[in-house]
Amino acid sequence: MFYFLLYWITASIQLILRYLDYYMSGTLALLDYYVPGWRVFLLSPFVITFLILPMLLVLYLYFCALLLFVYRRRHSIMDAFHQTAWDGYRQTIAAFWSGHGWIWHGYEVVGLENIPTSGPALLVYYHGAFPIDVYYLLANIYIEKGRIVHNVVDNFVFKIPGLKILFRFWGSICGPRSEVVEYLKDGALVGIAPGGVREALFSENYSLVWKNRVGFAKAALEAEVPILPVFTENCRQAFDYVKFGKSYFSRIYEKTRWPILPMYGGFPVKLTTYIGKPIKYDPAHTPEILARKTSLAIQELIKAHQSHGILSAMCQRFDSCYAYRACKSIRNIPNAHLHTV
Asked: Angle, to 10 degrees, between the axis of helix 85-105 and the axis of helix 53-72?
């Protein structure tokens, strides 16, 4: 079984390398056309000595730490492969995602006990600029609870070359509502962000961009399942979109449904996902009332846990050190120019 796992990892790496080679070739061709001489700059002794080599060293260290994290979970991975190959694959992928979150963001989940060990529930979450926190959460739920969350994603996700098979493998669905209800009635966990890509692109200060969307509430009422409000602290400090030209990009998005707003980020801020108490099924609720209660529950999580700028969110990784205490003292200064909700 060990050799089978090794073969699968090798095949996966080969597949990734083929995709990287394909996209890298296109990128290099574009650079050669639009930025002649870029190779001379990149290969200069100054860039190699002070930029490339230190970056490679850091990547190597984090990759070693990630492999160590996966190795520590080898017993659960091997046990899963003894059951079915698919379970083994999921355990392996979940271990890599969980390890990445642990290493780079100090990722934690608070309220995991609110996820039922069996039976259906609808997880409703705030959609960050790049939902890497959702990937971490799904991985941790699978590792700790042994359950797959069928996450509802936008149609464009399945049009990204090479990634459709991964999202399908992990149980992602596009809807419609009838499909969500069917999964819930079958006893599955389903995750959804009512704000969707629009919220990811155009949310300001962690505001919910739901408009009048109540489809998720209709699904929960039809399937008679509880709703779990979910929010990840600092998700917009990790990744966000540029602020300029949002009205222009908004018009483009409304016409094409393609998220082309430039993104920045990847900062190693502290990420903590909070899973609130379940909003239980009540036949007296209308979809509008249930949607409102869910919205208020998520806003309460945001209000209670989100108050950091990027610097403070990074210092949060070391909350016992002087730097974090200094950041907290800065936040207490009147009119301090820090991002707050």
From this structure: 130
**Could you read off the pLDDT of 91-133 as tens digits, one per residue?**
888 998 999 999 889 999 999 999 999 999 999 999 999 999 9
For residue 248, the number of C-alpha atoms closer than 13 Å in the C-beta half-sphere is 7
Alpha helices of the chain — where are they, by DSSP H? 2-34, 38-42, 45-47, 53-72, 74-83, 85-105, 132-145, 164-169, 177-185, 196-202, 215-223, 235-238, 246-256, 287-305, 310-315, 322-331
75 given a catalytic annotation: no
Strand pairing partners for 264?
240
Name the catalytic one among 100, 105, 127, 308: 127
Q: Which residues contact 90 (CB under 8 A, 6 or more apart)?
A: 80, 142, 148, 169, 170
Q: What is the pLDDT of residues 247-277, one digit of tens each?
A: 888 888 888 878 888 888 888 899 999 999 9
3-state secondary structure of 276: coil
Q: Provide the β-strand partners of residue 275.
A: 230
* Predicted model pTM: 0.77
Q: What is the CA radius of gyration of the chain?
A: 22
Q: CA 209 to CA 199: how far, in whole Å?
A: 5
The sign of the CA dihedral 164, 168, 172, 175 is positive
CA distance 312 to 219: 39
From 131, 308, 307, 156, select the one nearest 230 (Cα to Cα).
Answer: 131
Q: What is the separation, in whole angstroms, between the first and last Cα of the chain?
A: 51
